[in-house]
Amino acid sequence: MKSPVLTAAVMLSATFAWAGRKADDVKAPGPNRTERVIVLYKRQPNSNDEDKVRRNRGNVNRRYAHVPAAVYDVTKEALDELERDPDVESIVPDRPVKGFAQGEVLNAIRHWGVDAWYSGPSGSNCRGCSHGPVGIAVLDSGIRASHPDFNWWNTTTSRIVYKETFVGGNTDDQYGHGTHVAGLLAGEGNVSCLQGGLDQNGNCKSSDSYWGGAPGGQIVSLKVLDANGVGSDSAVIAAIDRAIQLKGAYNIRVMNLSLGRPIRESYTSDPLCQAVERAWNAGIAVVVAAGNLGRANDFSTSGYGTITSPGNDPKVITVGAANTLNNWWDNDDRITTYSSKGPTAIDQIVKPDIVAPGNQIIATQASNSTLVSQYPGNRPAVSSYWPWASGTSTYYYYLSGTSMATPIVSGAAALMIDRDPTITPDIVKARLMKTARRSFATSVSVFEASTNQWFALSHDIFTVGSGMLDLTAAFNATERPSGSAASPKAIYDSSTKKVTLKFSATGGSNVVWGTNGAFATNVVWGTNVVWGTNVVWGTNVVWGTSGTAGFNVVWGTTSPWASYSNQAQALSVAINGDR
Q1: Of 60, 37, 42, whose CA–CA distance to 50 is shortest?
Q2: For residue 543, what are the CA distances in angstroms to 264, 374, 500?
Q3: Catalytic: which of 140, 173, 226, 313?
Q4: Residue 525 vs residues 225, 408, 412, 451, 463: alpha-carbon distances, Å
Q5: Which DSSP category does 429 fall into?
Q6: Does 109 have pLDDT greater than 90?
Q7: Per-residue pLDDT tens digits for 294-351
């Protein structure tokens, strides 16, 4: 069975250099004009803060209940007063975000142990369990709710329990990205399995039945991307805020963000990052796409330093995309050429945390959506799941990217929480990373036909993180580490030209990781990647020589990728993937 993964295009604009509270890409409003900004406060804003904006002829555009931020339309006078306010952490524009647009996949992530557990007496995907189905918030372009795969198995009862749009219009998926993501995460396989027929034991006859990772989950659809796959920071933050509010009502324990934008400031000052941290602290495991800029070499970095926001936040689970080469063997799996690499710009956080299949994957289709209408060639043959049928499917679709790898990990997280509802997001992340499979070749050269280029790929800590998702191992893990599983910071030593991992920089003194024990660096990141806390692999491309462009990109304090824009390439990744 093939499994779907979608890559999203990234919108990048002016280079960022942090100065005080206001980001450099905040435009000063002209006379009698306003500019929309997101203001991150050091505490929850109140009516007095809003009054300061109004008395300077500004307007309050959006409030958040659980995120210490507000969206204002400000005049120059209002902006000046906000800059002087000691309670203001940062002022940034309302930036655009975009979505990063099967049998061998399930084999690659080792799903079989979970299948066995759910078919046993304690399983049934927790339908009717005392704690109820796990709720999964999908922040994307909406979901085509009429698709049968979002119903409970062999019924017409929908598992989409809540829908809301934050970009206007209705809650339907007009772009086609969110439906694909949701299918990978929690599709029930009703169409592919039932059309192909069941055998005498009630199993699917079709060898390609397109199930999602957690088909028993209940879905909360929060639409933040429009018909072109574009949204804004303020809309995403509003959806995160709503998910926190709805957590108790729908048992929301997992949040999927297959979207992102360029990093322009430290995660500590980025309202989008601070919003996902609030969700994490509320008990929701946040899973985020790493981005699709791995081919970018504008600054001679071979794609290093290209992780997008909010995947740069150390708390969240950041996911890169692997290529299974469409076969059942796992010894030839490799990272895709386009999967964004760490360390993160400005903060040098070690990312991604884990990788999952994300190349040329089949999942649920939103028929007549923008993607499907423009690229009908990505519809698979109906015969792939319905023997002897003809024509192309109106139910399933191929996509590629870290957007597709992300819901596979979100589904794994949902299953882990379903089995043990008492585990925290930090335990989920720690178990996923410790049990990840580290069997990649040290390096591989790949010719990519769609770009007519050779890529030298190293399977290192900044490329594959802790390794490939191993669902059975993570699902069966029992360790309950205490403390933060925040990703460490990479520290470059110019004298030794080595990199060490600093854990306290992002997670305080009480962290899961260390040099000894079950979650030691050599256990989590592998003996071929880390020895003690020293990263012993590396190339001159990554480390370079101090003063070179590539070195400054990876280890500097600004983000030159903010000026990088290649939408055609990003869309090509989503539609073509690695060939």
Answers
A1: 60
A2: 22, 41, 13
A3: 140
A4: 34, 20, 19, 31, 11
A5: H
A6: no
A7: 998 888 888 889 999 999 999 999 999 998 877 666 677 889 999 999 999 999 999 9
CB 226 within 8 A of CB 141: yes
Separation of alpha carbons 475 and 416, rounded Å: 5
Residue 196 has pLDDT above 60, yes or no: yes
CA atoms within 13 Å, Cβ hemisphere of 555: 20
d(CA 269, CA 227): 30
- Could you say which of 66, 111, 147, 177 is catalytic? 177
Q: Where are the beta strands (DSSP E) in 64-158?
A: 69-74, 88-93, 96-99, 135-140
Given the residues 302, 339, 403, 484, the one annotated as active site: 403
CA distance linking residue 414 with residue 410, whole number of Å: 6
Mean of pLDDT values over 430-438 = 93
Asked about 177 being catalytic, the answer comes back as: yes
Amino acid at 387: P
> Is 173 tagged catalytic?
no
List pLDDT tens digits, range 147-183: 999 998 778 889 999 999 999 999 999 999 999 999 9
493: confidence class by pLDDT, cuts 50, 70, 90 = confident
Banded model confidence at residue 560, pLDDT cuts 50, 70, 90: confident
- Using a 10 angstrom Cβ sphere, with 0-12 exposed, 13-18 middle and 19 or more buried, the burial of residue 548 is middle
Alpha-carbon distance of 171 to 371, in angstroms, equals 17
- The two tokens of residue 542 are 């990554």
Query: Residue 559: pLDDT band by 50, 70, 90 thresholds?
Result: confident
Contact at 8 Å (CB) between 23 and 264?
yes
3-state secondary structure of 532: coil
Q: Which residues, in sequence order, are bridge partners of residue 286? A: 255
Q: What phi-psi label fits residue 409: left (phi over 0), alpha (psi between -120 and 50 degrees) or beta? A: alpha
Please give the single-letter amino acid code of residue 115.
Answer: D
List, in sequence order, every beta strand (DSSP E) within 35-110: 35-41, 59-63, 69-74, 88-93, 96-99
Q: Is the pLDDT of residue 540 over 60?
A: no
User: What angle, rounded to 10 degrees, do the helices at 402-419 and 177-186 form?
Assistant: 40
Residue 310, preceding peptide bond in cis (omega within 30° of 0): yes
577 within 8 A of 7, measured Cβ to Cβ: yes
Contacts 24+ apart (CB under 8 A), 370-377: 370/174, 370/175, 370/176, 370/227, 370/228, 370/229, 371/101, 371/175, 371/176, 371/177, 371/229, 371/397, 371/399, 371/574, 371/575, 372/176, 372/397, 375/575
